[in-house]
Amino acid sequence: MKELLKLYAQNKRTLSEKQFNYIKSDKQLYNKHMHHILKLSGRFNPLYEKEIINYISNLSEEEQYEIVLNNKIILRYVTNQNVITKALKNNGHFLFYLSDELKDDKNIVMIAVKNRGLALQYASYYIKKDKDVVMAAVTNDSSALQYASERLQDDYDIVMTAVSDNGSTLFFASSRLQDDYDIVMTAVSNYGTALHFASTRLIKNKDIVMAAVTNDGNAYQFASNALQYDIEVVKAAKLYKE
What we know:
Layout: H1 2-10, H2 17-24, H3 27-37, H4 46-57, H5 61-70, H6 81-90, H7 100-103, H8 106-115, H9 131-140, H10 156-165, H11 181-190, H12 206-215, H13 225-228, H14 231-236
């Protein structure tokens, strides 16, 4: 028995099915080994995956949650929805460790992105097309716009929500919305150098450029050549010396 413990502690992949079955025959030894398994990181030996699911499911919700906090990879083997929900409310990035099936579950992903908007990156391809989920994500963290589907990066409401919080997210907007006056004006008003991501048409718009350089004089370099020679723009950028 001691030799098996030593062997297991050295490398979880070295135990054969026969050795593992021997361990299972002794409840005390089995519990000790399963407790040890749940502390290990990395991909588990397929021999243990089903056993881990069964073992965890027999623990209380409090015990399961404590295990997940100590080793988040274990969340992949948790089936209790209350534990999963609690974990995601604690840290939305835990979505990364869930199964593909749960990453395609709107309710699960919604919980995650409301806690950490950038958790949207772990959602399924189809969930990234869901406007409700993406709106929740960019509301929590405007940078989540980068993980939205192309269709939603072209959605006025989604993009306006993002650029209203952080104008630099204009970079992730569609070319159509980078040419939208209201979207770009909102972006450059709070992040002047977002002018760099505006369309060729709008970097020629004096109102847009004035708003940008008033917020950040460095935006001057992204204005059209003609407006770089406009005295009002130069003064607003604080580049003019009397």
